[in-house]
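Saturday, quiet lab. Running sequence design on the structure tokens for the scaffold JK sent over.
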């Protein structure tokens, strides 16, 4: 009954909103860094007309209330956010549509964050289904969202996404395995593998492989740029 009541309250809150002024939900102006990317640290934690309040539930999940111009537009319950900074909020334009979006969580590798995009038609925010488990960057040049994550000491995954409306679609990903003896474990045949697959197939290997190489210099220039940007970002954090 409690969950039903919360769901009904969420629907009522979403339905009771007056028409939203476009200027209230305009995306923040964020200048790319010297490498041409926008990191989460570049994104503001406050917005002039949008406010996000994040709470801890007793079961360890999170809930959030979002206001636009002081009007409650959405109440999300049972958000899967993890890490020490799970209550942190950043404002950005994740899908490059000119409207403000919200990221709840640290936006870092091995921590789950939640991304909410502004839905123009519904005049509310919509939660993206992707788990957002990775170190987030935005690439204005290609209009993609990037996530970097690792599964172990020898693996790194760099993924590029674009949006179709509010749906997040994988463009491609770079799988980097530093230990040759572990290639089979991760379904690759070389140190660097570019693929359009989210996961290896039934045979344990990626099927839609665009490039497989042991040389970083053989990677396309855009992927070299991405890897170098992440390396620089992590170097600056040390």
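Result came back. Writing it out in full:
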């Amino acid at each position: 009954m409690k969950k039903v009541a919360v769901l009904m309250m969420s629907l009522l809150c979403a339905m009771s909103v007056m028409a939203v002024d476009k200027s209230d939900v305009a995306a923040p102006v964020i200048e790319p860094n010297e490498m041409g990317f926008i990191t989460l640290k570049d994104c503001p934690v406050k917005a002039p007309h949008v406010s996000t309040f994040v709470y801890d539930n007793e079961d360890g999940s999170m809930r959030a209330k979002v206001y636009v111009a002081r009007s409650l537009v959405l109440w999300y319950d049972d958000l899967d956010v993890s890490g020490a900074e799970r209550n942190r909020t950043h404002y950005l334009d994740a899908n490059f549509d000119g409207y403000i979006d919200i990221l709840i969580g640290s936006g870092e590798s091995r921590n789950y964050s939640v991304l909410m995009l502004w839905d123009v038609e519904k005049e509310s925010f919509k939660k993206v289904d992707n788990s957002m488990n990775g170190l987030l960057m935005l690439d204005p040049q290609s209009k993609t969202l990037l996530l970097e994550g690792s599964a172990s000491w020898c693996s790194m995954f760099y993924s590029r996404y674009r949006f179709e409306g509010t749906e997040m679609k994988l463009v491609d990903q770079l799988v980097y395995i530093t230990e040759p003896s572990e290639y089979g474990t991760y379904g690759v045949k070389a140190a660097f593998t570019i693929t359009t697959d989210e996961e290896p197939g039934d045979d344990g290997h990626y099927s839609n492989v665009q490039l497989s190489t042991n040389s970083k210099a053989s990677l396309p220039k855009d992927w070299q740029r991405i890897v170098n940007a992440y390396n620089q970002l992590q170097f600056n954090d040390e």
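Notes for JK: The chain has one domain: 2-237. Residues 2-237 form one domain. Ask whether to fix the surface positions before the next round.
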